């Protein structure tokens, strides 16, 4: 009953305060391109295990990367998962260094059964972050006869996914599922070039871009579950969606002017005829484990981003291939004497191609993660913690631009029994 009341209170708070919470204010120059920096998607249990989830299924977690997993939800149960994360980004180009940090909402997930072997899930999570601020002063160049000027680039906005899905057992060992995913959001970018000295013939440049994206897509999933004997299991899964043209409104306004108020050129380019194209993604995964003891898994993800169409970002997209792997271990889930033995210990890693291409070079990523599942007393509910270190690097001549991103998160994963008629009052 306490879990149920807590669930209701948190849900009300989220829907009241989340719209006003704003976006993640982690400064990354890589967010300047395409649809911004892609956020890792999944519950914190999944992220602590490197991001795997395509083949995972259990009765107390929601793995929305494969909707077939919803069929594992217990009859009469209700799952609620709400998470926030704190990120620190350290930027370095070999000479200069910069830090940024922020605390923000990450996800809200809910799941419940319709019947035995048939479940439903609903949720919202961040897809991308478009926040950045970049400035530099360029000294006077006597050869090109240009005076000193300052460049300033900034961006804001984000894209969000809302999903509603269902999954059901189709045989004893196979399950299938489908998600309806609604993408929505707005990205704004500003670029300014201002001369330090007020020359009449020196024209400053101010340009802004605004991109709105909305649309609906479908994600499909399949899972196979096999018992090797009474103790061990082997799971396999695939999930995929097709490429989708999304409704997009794109505007670009560019103005050239002098410090004396003289305007040379004003260009306004609205474009609502071209639809943005977000390519399809294919996921495959396999996991092996012993129930209530351990699970180890690996996922492969491919997205043909080179076929994507995003207004204002032509030429910066490359295909992505990701390899994710992770392990969870529980010393003794039902120990009556040791709280430490009841905890869930997780570790994982990921090696990826980022979808951003700069100067003909694709950004590379790798990372490691750790996590804990802390069980709540006399319940299947738990608090999930994780910490992830991810490095993004871009070769650039003799220097290498790097981002070292540390993310820490905490989520409340509540499991409660609902829809049960009381025998006694």
Which descriptors apply to this entry?
single chain, 19 strands, mainly beta, 14-stranded antiparallel barrel, Porin, 3 helices, elongated
Q: What is the compact description of this entry?
A:
The chain contains 3 helices and 19 strands. The protein has helices spanning 2-17, 44-48, 339-342; strands spanning 37-38, 77-92, 97-115, 118-129, 132-138, 149-169, 174-195, 204-227, 232-241, 244-257, 263-271, 276-278, 281-290, 294-303, 320-329, 344-358, 361-375, 382-396, 399-417.
Report on this model:
The chain is mainly β. The protein has one domain (2-417): Porin, CATH 2.40.160. 6% of the residues lie in helices and 60% in strands. The radius of gyration is 24 Å and the shape is elongated. The model is unreliable at 15-21 (pLDDT under 50).
